[in-house]
Every structure is written in structure tokens, then in C-alpha cells.
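re: ur question from earlier - yeah i can do the single chain one, its not a big deal. heres the input i used so u can compare w yours
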Amino acid sequence: MTDPTRQLRPHRQLRLLAGQDAILDGQIPRPTVGQVGVFWLLFEEVPADPRDPTLSTIEADAEPLAPPRLEPAIDAPPAIPRTWIWRILLRGDGWSATWYSPRPATGRVRITGRLVGDFAYATTGSVRGRVISARSLDEAGTAGRHEPGILAELDLDDVPPPAIRPSFVPRALSAAGRVLWAADEQLPLIVRIDLDNPTDVREIVIPAPIAPEPGRTPWRLHADPAGCWIVGWYGIFRATGTGTVHRLDDRPVSASAAHKGTLLTCTTDKTATRIDLWHPDGQSHHDDTTVPAGTIGSVTAHDNGFRILMRRRDTWPTTTFVVAVTVDGHVTIGPSIDDVDDYAILTADPPGIIDVRNTVRTLRPDLRADPPTRWPLPGLTGGTVGNLVWIEHHDRDRDLHDNRRYWLLSLADPTGGVIARTEIHTPEPSVTIDSHGTVWITDHNIIAVYTPTGTLPLPLSPAELLDHHRSDPPLSR
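and the output i got, formated as C-alpha cells:
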């Protein structure tokens, strides 16, 4: 029986500005009257202005998320003043939002500003509601006060119950031979799947926290015939084919790659980037190697070791350079390379740098780069798998009235010639290739997008395989 007091209670409503860029990127849905949507939320504190319809005064509980940091980053132009920013989670009635505040705050707060539907990486807050009104605000309509977008009112109560989360949501993926290893996007769970016998699934629980941010990738996997490296936010782990797992280090890993079982990890801080090499026996070698501090753009393995694409944070204009690391730990730092985008890909064969905007450069043995030439497949992000390149990009032929949240993933040869293309519904998928040449990706499940035979295998649902395994475990031998 429905509680009569609940029937009489007014529905909770919330006003938000769905940012145009976040909509176009597929991070949030385009607000459409009558539809239920989930929006990543930022809060921007703004002085009251009766001419700005995007503003509202909210009450919420403020919870600090992290120590303060100086913004903008050190590699910003010197003319931009830097200030301390506190990242705070605001918890309201039926919603939450991240607030990048110029002052510390905690407890119950009452503040004026706008709630913005934004990119998932920028916030840990979100809201779910049914759109009851939507109004487009273009450049002219914003009067320069905020970015263009759609001003929407949400009903937070007129929504169906959310779907039950699957027991396993794959986010990271790696193959060795005909064995797939997958990591959940939040839970510290790994599954090992034998592609020749998919019901032979093994569950591995990692002694690590549950990741707080769905949609991010807390783990990277690097499989080899003897097991799998598991690296990321919570350190370095080594799992064996029998299901045992050992933690080898607890430092967060910024980037990694593996070559014939040897793992390279990059750990960054404000002063330097530390490079470690790990071997399947669990031993770390050459763990005292450091290079200048910087942002890791890409890492790739090749026959003689590894290459790392780095961006210096302590210079302006920012510069990019390549670091070469041999399997025995010898490090070579290359010269500066100008005008490389934040999203660039290192290729191993042939050695090169693909700027996903639209250029490619050949990388010489001395780590110098040739002048850029045109890359025919621009996109948002990408990587390499085997000797192929994958690029995530928008659908340039998308219908203007198509409100679905999706991107395209194109698989290309080293020249940019597309050999396969598929629609994906999660940003920044994990991509791997097995010994039959089949390319697999994460997209809610594990999907095959290319195979040399032309006949794609059926998608794999780790959740279904795992649930079946839990209810009917194999007999002991």
C-alpha cells in the first residue's frame, strides 16, 4: 500500500544546465521532456543575478574530497594567476555535485550558483530525474555568463527504480593466447576467461578498495602466459593462472606497459617520474630510475623494451619528449618535440607518434621526430593493439535528432586505413587482441570487433559467466 503522506509530498525538483560540450561528447544525455536521464553534476558558485535563469540557491552537506591544490596546473601560461582550490562533494536531497571551491567548507552550506551537467572525469556527483522542461541556451542566450547548453528542470521522484548493477562490469581487458583477463570498473574483482571454454571462468578478489568513481578506470591489465599484472590506483599486483594474487607495491601507478612478461610502471609526483621494471618472479629491478616530472601521454612496448611519451609540466610552452627504456633498465631521454596534443599515441611498428587531432610523425632511433604529416582518422582518444591502431571518435554522419549516447571505435592499419568500425556506448574502452587475431573491447560486456576470418564470436557477459560459476562451482579434481 502506498504511503498517503508520500503521495501528498511535493516532488523534488532540480534545475541544471546541461553543457553543450558534454552533450556533444556523449557524457550526458540531451535533456528531452519526458525522458529519464542521469547527469554528472558540477556546482559553480556564482553571485546572485536575476538576469541569469541558470542560477539557484541550494542547501547541501559539504564533504571534503581531497587536500587543496593550486590551480591552474603548473604548465599553464604564467599570466594566469594561481589560487588554492578545495574539491568538495555537495550532497543535496536526491543529488550530489562536485564543487571546486576557492575556500574550505564542511557541514551544511547554503550557496548560490549553477548546477552543470558536465564530463564524468570532472566530478563524483550525479543526479537522476525525469526532464519536465528543457530550453536551449545558445551563445547569444548565455550573454557570456556561462557556456551554451540546455537549461532543464528535473523531477527527482517521477522515476522508476534504478536497474540492479550487474555482478561484474568489465572496464579493463588484456589477453594472452586464448585467455582473457578482465577487471571490474569499481569492484576489486578480476575474472579469467578461457576463450576456448568460456564456462571455465575464474574469479580473483584483489585486497584493494572499491573505486569510488564509476566510469573511470582504476586498473590496467597486462596478461602473459604465466599470469597477469594488475596495476593502477591501488598499486601493483601479480595474479597467476591458478587464481592466487600478491600485492607487490602500494604506490599509485600513472602508466604501464608489458613486454613478454616484464612490466614497466611509471609513478609520478611533483618533482620526478619514477620508472620501475618488474618481472614475473615478483622482483623489481632498476627501481631507482627517475626522469623529469611530467604527464604520461602514452606508453608502448617493442622488441627492445619500452617507449614513454611525456609532457613536461615545469616549462612554458609545454614540451613533449620520448623516453626509451630497455628491458635491462637503460634509460634514454629524447629531445623536445613541439606541438603534440595531450591525446597522442605511440606506435611500435613502425615507430611513430599519432596526434589524434590529425597528424602523425615518424620517430627516429635517436628519439627525434620527423615533421608531422596528415593522419586520416582524427578522434578523441586511441591506442594500439598488436600492429593495429584504434581510434575513438564521434559519428560524423550522426542525425541531429539522434539522442543516443554513443561513439564510434575504428580499427585501422598503421597508415590509418580503416579495417573495422563499431558503435560503442562507453567512453575510453579497453582494447586487446588474442592469439587468433580477434580484437576484443569492453562495452558493458566484452565484445569482439574484428577477426581475420570475418565471423565475429558472440559477446561475452562476465557477469553471467560469473553468476553461473558462483551458483554451480566446478567439482574439485
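Helices lie at 4-8, 20-24, 139-142, 462-471. not sure if urs matches, ping me
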